[in-house]
Hints:
The protein is 47% helix and 14% strand. The chain is an alpha+beta fold.
Amino acid sequence: MQMEDRDAIISGFLAAEGWEDRFRAPLSGDASFRCYERLHDRERKAVLMNAPPDKEDVRPFWALACHLRATGFSAPEVIAGNCDAGLLLLEDFGDELYSRVVEDNPDAEELLYSAAVDLLVDLHQQPIAQNLSFAKGNRYRVPRYGEQLLLEEAQLFTTWYLPEVSVSAVAQGEKVVFTNLWRDLLCRVPATAPVLVLRDYHADNLIWLSERSGIARVGLLDFQDGVAGHPAYDLVSLLEDARRDVSPLLAGTMIERYVNGANNHGAAIDRDEFRIAYAILGAQRNTKIIGIFTRLWRRDKKPIYLELIPRVWGLLARDLEHPALTDLKSWYDNQVPAAVRATVPGSI
Length: 348
């Protein structure tokens, strides 16, 4: 589709919803093909999500936004939408991203992270509806975040990152060893009842709504990739952030806050088993992210994410210190030594 055709579709959508086309200002996007614009018209404001339908599907966002709002969480209201066009008109939560609030007021960090952890405790008490209804009878099925998908994500590391830094490892068939190590490790994640995993639950996707109270103060911006999975995953996403440092002290405090909160609600979480799951899923997530950031550079021509890879390596190294990951740690140490981890693909 030509750019002018896309612009015409957007203009037609906005006109049909009563918005004049000229009241638009770009907002920062993300690593996907989606982009966002703020709309302002006298006393009204909204956000336009532009997700080209050949690249993205807005239905998961719409369905999960309706589900989250119905269960008391602050997801943006979908004011209007056109799934075929890949366009949603959303409630505007403003600009108080967690990352910005904490940068301006470091003393607020523990308050904000505590609220984000409390939201996870509450979210994980809610039953997952297998089929979510939205937009006049449409339905969406939440995918299962099982071992196969987790393994496929980990393999992004050997598919995209490893060839950029270690040709010999690829030639020696280390991908097979890597896959087998991960397959065995994922089987060791203690089983729990699946919860709704938002998947990209971190400081650049949370917004502080100080005028609201309780868990409603935490605005949720990015959840279209939500799945039914393990409760430790979003806690990892929050506390092992690829974009900002969360101190080990604060992370430990927040893990304890989650476990205590969940147990107070009858979850009966075993601390040691939860720590094993946290370490394994943390290592999986950080392994995946290194692969994704390399793919964004190599395939999608988005080199900005390369500079984050050494930080993610630091998080991964912390996860690999858990005794349950000893064999996997040895593989990483042999294939990607510390000197390589400190560099970025393309600079070696």
